[in-house]
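Suppose you are handed a protein chain with no further information: no name, no annotation, nothing but its sequence. What can you learn? This example shows the usual starting point.
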Amino acid sequence: MLTGSVFSILGTSLLTVKTLDSFYDPSQTAAFNSLTSIKNGEAYLVEMSAAKTLSVTGVVIASASLSLKAGWNLVGYPRQAQATIATVLTGIWSQFTSAKNFDGFYVKNGTLNSLSNFSPGKGYFVKTSSAATLTY
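A reasonable first move is to predict its three-dimensional structure. Written in structure tokens, the prediction is:
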């Protein structure tokens, strides 16, 4: 799943694809891109010059494990059905502190949360108090 191949359908509208620590810019020399492949369960920030639809097909992922560091992490939600944040993060609940995306936020034990579920195909920023392994 090479980054350039996955996002090639977006053509010249694609400006950059980023994670928290790597990036892909189709306009620069390939050797300078640190994001070379797409990984199951991870999320990506995609900057576009114009709106386009990216359709991805493949096999449903049976399971995925992501190593999270203390602090903010960018994670994908590779499931086909929506689930509560508490259900999805049950295995790391003791390290979990908050989650957010461009639609809202969730703070553990918070009362003004505007986000309550993880939805298929979306990415989330998840904050942990210590390193953890998130398994879907």
